Amino acid sequence: MRILFVFLFSFLLSAASAQLFRCVVAVDGSGTHSSLQEAIDACPDNEYSIIYLKNGRYDEQISIGSKTAASSKKLSIIGQHPDSVVITGNRARNTANGLSFEQVVTFQVYAPEFYMENVTIENTAGNTGMAEALYTGADRQTFKNCVIRSYQDTYRSKKGTRAYFESCTIEGAVDFIYAGGVIFFDRCTIRCIGNSGYITAPEDAAFTIPRLQTKVDKFLRLGFIFRECAITAAPGVPDGSFYLGRPWNSMAGSFYLNCILGPHINAKGWKEWNGNESSASFAEFGSKKPDGSAADVSQRVSWSFQLPADDVTNLFTTQGIYGRVSTTSPYTPELLVQAPAAPVSVGTDGTRLSWPAVADAAGYVVLKDNRLVGFTISTSYEITGTDGVFTVRSVGVRGQQSAASGVTSLPAPENPVAVSQLNGRLVFGEAVTAALYTTDGKLIKSTPQLVHEFNTSDIAEGLYLLSMTTSEGISSTKKLNITHKPSI
Fold first, then answer.
1. Under 8 Å CB-to-CB from 22, ≥6 apart: which residues?
2. Does an H or E element contain 322, and which?
3. Can you give the pTM of this predicted structure?
4. What is the pLDDT of residues 452-461, one digit of tens each?
5. Angle at CA 362, nearest 5°, toward 360 and 368?
6. Residues 375, 365 contacting (CB under 8 angstroms)
7. Which domains does the chain have, with CATH numbers?
8. Contact call for residues 261 and 299 (beta carbons, < 8 A)
């Protein structure tokens, strides 16, 4: 009976998703494909396709097109959350093995108009050579809420192309954002690891703003542009051990605008490289310390400079810069990353969730206890015979996901598991797996196996939702006010 249920659930999930997502990828076989590459290959050319990645680790090297044959697929790849959807590889290149970056990179895109959201891409080769995680080899590449991590050469971009990163994390040690194109990083976290290194190594500028058009009276060679980013470091990274960048090419440029710089950034700011610094454009505006006070830039290298506010306001707009790169292929990523509003007033009659339609939503993702239940293009979803914490997310036409709706809980069974609080712990009346959520559906903490106790000493006091499942598979959910008052 259980096998039949799993089969029927997988069939229904695939059928429902076909209307919203062309492919659903799941390593456990519950989607239309178990391999992301197979799903990509199944999408037609010259059409928009959205691929949904269910939670899991996808150990495969992905290529959309190739260096010699670009792809015409217009793809969106959407995960549930970057912590739980990981595309991973572990190859590096060095003088000993003679591999090319195309042979080692975990994820490479040679298709324009690519969009990705809520996915981690990693290369776990470590400090063994150049180990790209991501290569964008085409124009108009957009990433939202993604994590890109490796050690050396984490992210490589192609000359003359445009890309945009919103609320992403990029991690590495040596030249881990490098090569060409004009790339905006908005409100991202740039995380440094290792004992020392360089964040950017720009190769060329997509174009140069003439000095006569600037208030600073300098050429502005536009490459990598960081706006309102946090430049952070892993624990143990020494103070002063990292540089904001070094010029790989004489016509290179990197700019940090209104960014927060951790103490691991060297007081000189930038590092010279083969004399390229004499013509490169390396600049800052409004750099701050983590406490919000102004960063001390008095010791910056003489060939770098501070931008005046007028140049930042008038010259460093996304559309102004992207429009100079290409007037025939408009690129408006700030509009693209905007998701529809979250559903409101999600209600239930015990067997069905329902909610008012959301403007600009192509469909909806339904989650139970922060796990995918299914998709729908209507404003209701059948949930017969199950108990738990349900949330709903709106989905835009390119797959953009909204924040979660408010929580809707189905009634608990007649004899729920007893729960008591004792000195920073939850004590259960029988062994359960447990998950704790905020009242708006965010997962705070969970147990991977059956337990009798659950530590809450590290959780702030307040109202939460607790979901429990017994060894017999009986689930229940209750509201719980976490308190740290000592028990008597």
1. 42, 43, 49, 50, 51
2. helix 318-325
3. 0.84
4. 999 999 999 9
5. 115
6. yes
7. 2-336 (2.160.20.10), 347-405 (2.60.40.10), 419-482 (2.60.40)
8. no
